[in-house]
């Protein structure tokens, strides 16, 4: 058995351990509960999105999925930090969708020699990620980090990646970021969607590259910014 597709059913309970040479597992849009099951190291495609899975991502952080290229665990109840090993092979695992969970901690800073390439997508939006943004995701073509609790200045690596057109979509709205450091002579191409609204940037940035879901407020109220950043990022926005 190489491909197993069980999506959009009414499967419930914990997903059993799968000990085969499975390459493709799709069980999204069910009612599965429990933690991430033990999975075969041969997987290249894994989607368990839109279930009720909970617990940490430790099972995926062991580095035992050398050929995993597509990972979608979005819209569950997963919690805890994102393992740094998930960012260590960007030319292999080039599609990673973890949005709308309860993930916390910082975006890992583990060094890597490889870079994300064309067609890559990483979505970590709508979680509780904190701290300053590390440059590890610079170069992702489509990158969603919005609706978290990130602080500080956007690293130069992201600015360059946006301005040279490598990153074509960068959503950073609804965080607590303080600066997008465009150097003199740099500009954002018209083909790039960049959204920075509802952060703590002064002067406020525009909404031209934002989706309608970002709202119409350019910046957070100053009181929110001073309370959150001054208090070490402990409040929720």
TrEMBL record:
Listed InterPro entries: Leu-rich_rpt, LRR_dom_sf, RLP29
Q: Which Pfam families match?
A: LRR_1 (PF00560)
Question: Which branch of life, at top level?
Answer: Eukaryota
- Report the leader peptide range: none
The name under which this protein is listed is: Uncharacterized protein
What organism does the record attribute this protein to? Answer: Punica granatum (Pomegranate)
Highest classification ranks of the organism: Eukaryota, Viridiplantae, Streptophyta, Embryophyta, Tracheophyta
């Amino acid at each position: 058995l190489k491909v197993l597709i069980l999506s959009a059913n009414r499967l419930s309970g914990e997903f059993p351990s799968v000990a085969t040479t499975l390459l493709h597992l799709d069980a999204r849009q069910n009612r599965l509960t429990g933690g991430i099951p033990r999975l075969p190291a041969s997987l290249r495609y894994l989607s368990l999105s839109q279930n009720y899975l909970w617990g940490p991502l430790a099972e995926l952080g062991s580095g035992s999925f050398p050929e995993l290229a597509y990972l979608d665990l979005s819209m569950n109840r997963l919690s805890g930090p994102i393992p740094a090993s998930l960012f260590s092979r960007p030319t292999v695992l080039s599609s990673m969708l973890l949005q709308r969970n309860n993930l916390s901690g910082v975006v890992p800073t583990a060094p890597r020699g490889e870079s994300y390439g064309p067609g890559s997508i990483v979505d970590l939006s709508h979680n509780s990620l904190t701290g300053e943004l590390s440059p590890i995701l610079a170069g992702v073509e489509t990158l969603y980090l919005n609706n978290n609790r990130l602080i500080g200045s956007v690293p130069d690596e992201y600015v360059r990646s946006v301005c040279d057109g490598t990153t074509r979509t960068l959503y950073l709205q609804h965080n607590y970021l303080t600066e997008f450091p465009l150097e003199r002579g740099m500009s954002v191409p018209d083909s790039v969607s960049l959204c920075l609204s509802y952060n703590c940037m002064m002067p406020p940035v525009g909404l031209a590259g934002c989706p309608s879901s970002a709202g119409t407020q350019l910046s957070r109220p100053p009181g929110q910014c001073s309370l959150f950043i001054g208090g070490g990022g402990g409040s929720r926005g």
